[in-house]
Amino acid sequence: MKLASQFWHKVCGHYRTSRGLHIPPVEKSESNDQLRDKLEHTEEVIKRAMTLYKPNEMMLSFNGGKDCTVLLDILARMTPPSMPLGAVYVKSANPFEELEKFVDDSVQRYGLQLRRYEGVLKVAFEQLIAEDSQVKAIFLGCRRSDPESCNLYELEPTNNGWPAMMRIFPLLEWSYHDIWSYLRSNNLPYCCLYDQGYTSLGDRSSTRVNPSLLAYDEKLDKMTYRPAYELEDERLERFNRDEHGQASVSGSKQ
């Protein structure tokens, strides 16, 4: 596919000049090629969704995290410039200011038509459907390694009392390291908290730096937290999160 063939060679220069966004240096390696098949499959899932639903019937669930940032970029590359991307952002009770700023910057960079809500995810989606009955499907950046996501299908309707719509999971087969390979190989901006030892982002009250990334820095002669992309064991991705059992749009708690 044209998009996939250009993926590893295309550098978005305008991203590099985005103010307030972190753009890390990276050396391309052969490991990047391992993502090619997954990217092509992701594109196929998105194209299938686009044949089933009209543009105004689909939205992206975007919270500024690394996974939905990847999904946003892929969707933007596949969407004609004349067709604005619709997205929904549900603000947590105690959000990180850095994450809020990154969401705002992403709206400007991609020209998102963002709907903002606060509180519980399920209630926010109910409000979304009540305000816009045309919405029938939502893109989500969940991966199989995420809680309650191991048995998901790429296209799966909501259940258990959630607002009726089709959930679309184009990144199910991607790994933690795949996400970081995409972000860094494409020089994409991401939330600066990931460079401060955070590997997974949630509410400020339930998220802390990941102790797995604490290491001695010889240059600084002190212990510091390495960036998220240096986490070796991806099973420790959510080691910095306290889960409080809020229902998730991806899993069985719906």
Pairing-aware structural class of the strands and helices? alpha/beta
> Which architecture of the largest domain per CATH?
3-Layer(aba) Sandwich
Structurally, how many domains make up the residues? 2
CATH C-level category of the largest domain: Alpha Beta
Residues in β-strands, percent: 5-15%
Number of distinct beta strands: 8
Largest sheet composition: 6 strands, mixed
Radius of gyration: 18 Å
> How is the CATH topology of the largest domain named?
Rossmann fold
Topology:
Layout: H1 2-7, H2 13-16, H3 36-52, E1 58-61, H4 66-78, E2 86-91, H5 97-110, E3 113-118, H6 121-131, E4 137-139, E5 155-157, E6 166-168, H7 176-185, E7 214-217, E8 222-225
Parallel strand pairs: 1-2, 1-4, 2-3, 4-6
Antiparallel strand pairs: 5-6, 7-8
Descriptive account of the structure:
- By secondary structure, the protein is an alpha/beta fold.
- It is built from 7 helices and 8 strands.
- Helix 4 crosses helix 7.
- The longest helix has 17 residues.
- The chain starts with a helix and ends in a 29-residue tail after the last strand.
- The N terminus is likely disordered.
What's the gist of this structure?
This protein has 254 residues and is an alpha/beta fold.
For the structure shown, list the relevant keywords.
254 residues; six-stranded mixed sheet; Rossmann fold; 8 strands; single chain; 2 domains; alpha/beta; disordered N terminus; 7 helices; two-stranded antiparallel ribbon
